[in-house]
Amino acid sequence: MRKICLITGASTGIGAATARLAAVEGYDLALTYRSEAAAMAKVAEACEAAGAQVLVCQADVAQPSDIEALYEAIDDRFGRLDALVNNAGIVDQAVKVTALTHDRLRRMFDVNVIGAMLVAKEAVIRMQRQGTGGSLVNISSAAARLGSANQYVDYAASKAAIDIFTKGLADEVALDNIRVNAVRPGLIETDIHAKGGEPGRAQRLAPMVPMQRTGSATEVARAVLYLLSDAASYVTGTTLDVTGGR
Q1: Based on the structure, what is the number of domains in the chain?
Q2: How many of the other CB atoms lie within 10 Å of CB of 109?
Q3: I need a surface site. Which of 9, 13, 86, 114 has the fewest CB within 10 A?
Q4: pLDDT tens, 18-73?
């Protein structure tokens, strides 16, 4: 029987790469997107071609009502949930802390922290009710330990919150056979840099990486799928860097 995996923010980048790889590795999928419907449709088509049943839901994780509707759709379609990749997240234009606004901070933390926590909460409720365990992977960032001074300190702070949430939740649900881990991507070639106003950022900073190159979304996806899998059955409460050594 194919396991059911929810991946939030699956239309592009790391979420899309994870969806494609999960389909190949035998998961049926619930995939969310917020605004990029055409890109989401292409990802869903590729996953179905790989043999997966796919449920696509438009959802803004900053809206509790969207999260509620998402899980109702999963319950109706699949009736269970075995895995979650908590990937949906945002960045903003590069600014110093002195230029941050309340509206920007609210949106950043509503999506990257509060939304992720509420999505995880609903996944855990279902996994506990099923009684067969499960696996959650939160997508953090190397920014959580680097700080992103002069650029994205608010984003870095939101991802640091995800790191400690990962540890706390992992300890809380370990006896339910639910594993909770995180992946910290480094300089990965995705469109998140363009969304932050610096499309060439990854290539510009690549010389700072010990491996002297950027990473790919697929390389991050492979780490995510490892943590979801039974190969990581004794791994919980940890955060795996996929950063080329940076």
Answers
A1: 1
A2: 17
A3: 114
A4: 999 999 999 999 999 999 999 999 999 999 999 999 999 999 999 999 999 999 99
Q: What is the CATH number of the domain that holds 7?
A: 3.40.50.720
Strands 134-139 and 178-185: parallel
Distances (CA, A) of 146 to 13, 32, 86, 112, 196: 21, 29, 21, 17, 17
**Does the annotation count 155 as an active-site position?**
yes
What whole-number distance in Å separates Cα of residue 117 and Cα of residue 16?
21
Q: Is the dihedral of CA 29, 15, 56, 107 positive or negative?
A: positive
Q: List the beta strands (DSSP E) in the chain.
A: 3-7, 27-33, 54-58, 83-86, 134-139, 178-185, 239-242
Catalytic residue among 27, 155, 226, 234: 155
Beta strand pairing call for 27-33 and 3-7 = parallel
SS3 8: coil
Domain that holds residue 112: 3-242
